[in-house]
Amino acid sequence: MMSTRCYHRLLQFFAVGGLLLVAASCTLVEERIDRTAGGPNVPADTAVHMRLESSGQPEEIAAPKVPPGPLKVTITEAILLCLENNRSLVVQRLDPSIQQTFEDQERAVFDPAIYADVSAGRVKGERLERSGSGTEDFTTDGAEGIISLEQYFPTGTTVALEAGTQLNDASLYEDIFYTNRLGMTVTQALLRGYGTEVNLARLQQARLDTRMSEYELRGFTEFLVAEVERTYWDYALARRQIEIVEESLKVARQQLNETRELIAVGRLAKAELAAVQAEVALQEQALIEARTKKESMRLQLLRLLNPLGPGLWQREIDLIHQPTLPEIKLEVVELHVDVSMRMRPILNEARLEILRGDLELVRTQNGLLPLMDLFITLGKSGYANSFGESVRNIDKDSYDALAGVNFHYPVFNRDARARHQRALLSRDQAQKALENLSQLVEVDVRTAYIEVNRAKQQIAASSVTRMFDEQKLRTETEKLRVGKSTSFVVAQAQRDLLVSRIAEVRALASYLKALIDLYRQDGSLLERRGIVAPGREPTNLSAK
Fold first, then answer.
1. What's the rounded Cα separation, in Å, for the pair 317 and 295?
2. E strands of 345-491, at which residues?
3. Which of 47, 266, 445, 510 is within CB 3.0–4.6 Å of 455 for a Cys-Cys bond?
4. What pTM was estimated for this model as a whole?
5. Beta 113-128 vs 71-73: how paired, if at all?
6. What is d(CA 449, CA 518) in angstroms, rounded to the nearest whole number?
7. For residue range 465-501, what is the model confidence (pLDDT) as tens digits?
8. H or E element that contains 167
9. How far apart are CA 511 and CA 496, in angstroms?
10. Residue 157: how many CA atoms within 13 Å on its side-chain side?
């Protein structure tokens, strides 16, 4: 048997230690959670901004201020305006912060909680007299108040400190009876729910979900930047196409006037006039189409840039940068593939899904175990006919102690087995999905690489075609003037030159867009443009 003095010392040790433990829980638990779950609970990195890479130190660049009137932008300024003002990106940037609220929910499991209960009541009735010869009336007034502080720890330990007072005023006795109690209960999971690994799994999963949302944001930002650049060059192509068609229409009209003069002096038959008139009409139709396409591209570019100020859709756009052939020497395709394996957001998301499945396996495997908790309850009580005296009497010999084990286990445990089997299959599915995605990404990169080389070769080929079409038009025009050609042949030569001039500019724009697509496919577009966005660090499965 434990002596009263030893028990008092043990109780005082547990009480003081429990008070200090719970008082420090706000910091200790936070540090333990941060260390085990992978870092401090800081706001999600949702900053998306441009940095200059020309200087030694990165310097943040604010979005350019856009004066009223025509919008004059370079390609860099267009990207900055989009990152600052695009409404789709504004919506997408909220996802990591929203997802982080789920982290806070999971952390709340380890927050200390205060419970309080106050009650009062009266009982009026009859009871057997102590002499046993009859009954007597009695009235009992009672009141009780309990307050407790409870803390759950990642180790699977629950510590609860409790203080309570009770009043009993019975008509059968002259004095009011007070009871005060201080107690502590410690419950420790022995099987299911034991250890930080399983208890922090849901918090770690929430943090992985936040990182996944950051990779999604990065992927969306890459797509948006690529879309701005593609639209920028498409708009430049549309404007240049209008200039080319207008020049061709001017030449066709001059040809119409020359044909009329040659018919007037009898050097050409009137039948030659129809072919030239048809060519003029065709060029006017092409000009209408080119202007319509230019307006459509202007609206798309305005939607992406979304510059502030009134009259958004009425603003004209002047592009400072025109399509030019960049001096770029591509690395071998294997290097682009290697970069894509590390940087593509969709692959990093898939890797995080595998890590999330590993945590789910930890949870479900622990769920296969029986529930067995060890609990210890220690308390000291004071009794007296006054409240103050009952508090002082807590230090006397009265105490209570309780220890035991709770056990629970379903006979077949089908629910836990099904959850674990589902976790195993889902984890295997995630691994297979990553392998499939890796193959698809490599195909995309290799296809984009082939397209870049094709587009670059088309630039030279289209330039040669345009040169020969110019020469052919000059030759047919001279032949027409001396009566050795027809207006139809000249009109066909004009049409071929128009097509080849547009194809030459389109080949250059296609090459620029092919480069953009290659950089987006290998995940390096934002890095090459100096844009800092969430999800910059690749996910490493080998470090799990």
1. 10
2. 371-384, 400-408
3. 510
4. 0.80
5. unpaired
6. 6
7. 888 888 888 887 788 777 777 777 777 887 888 888 8
8. strand 157-170
9. 22
10. 12
